[in-house]
Amino acid sequence: MALSRRGFLAALAIAPAMGATGLPKITVTKDPSCGCCTGWTEHVRAAGFSTEVVETNELNRAKVRLGVPAHLYACHTAEVDGYVIEGHVPAPTIRRLVAERPNAKGLAVRGMPVGSPGMEVAGAEPETYDVIAFGPEGESRFARYRGAEPM
To answer: What is the pTM of this model?
Structure first.
């Protein structure tokens, strides 16, 4: 079945909202001077997400507004498709989140693990870390990584 002119134009109209790959846009809130946040933003952009960056010196206000538990705070906070992304969460795990749609507020990676997206350090051994799902049902491990590699 051929796509009508009207259908084609409608698809073009929604494409910017979904990004060229059909993935939702990620809005990243970060400190203006944070280099690793910029690295993480480039990581998710390279994975096909369109991004919008909001720079602020009052990042904790966004974390409180979005309901990020204080013990999970990291250096940047993002929003994607109704979920919160806190810290250096790898793009494949964000794709899984928006595909599976679990009953969670969001995902977080505590701190700044060496080797996580945006925290690559030449010659340094990558750290093992958990991606934590948090929300109304509490917290649980959603994924586990060693650097950029899932475990």
So the answer is: 0.84
